[in-house]
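Methylglyoxal synthase: structure, please.
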Amino acid sequence: MMEIALIAHDRKKDEMVNFAIAYEHVLKHHRLYATGTTGTRIMESTSLTIHRFMSGPLGGDQQIGARVAENTMDLILFFRDPLMAQPHEPDIIALLRLSDVQGIPVATNVATGELLVKALERGDFAWRELVHKYKPGIEE
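Here you go.
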């Protein structure tokens, strides 16, 4: 079971909801986390259970970033809007930097999201289970 974060900028929330609907059969087997509004919108449209953090601009990105820093997040689906300035851009950059430091796969659009979720469905993320097994403080 993987720990997966779902984040979407305002103009990408519909894409994220549609993505969650399309891949509900895969996502339902994992622990899901999301920023506030994104999580609410997904839960309203699917049967998925999602732990919701605060809204991104209110600290939700940082809350997910804390899990990444602890290496307890396995995958991030972050549908970003590259054409809109974000007031919390430093938080977003910090989250992406931490993901790179910890080697956490991040999808920033539907195309890369599909690649990662299909890999997840095939079981290609078994290497993350080794991280959980051998890193102190991480439990399944």
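Notes: Residues 89-102 form the longest helix (14 residues).
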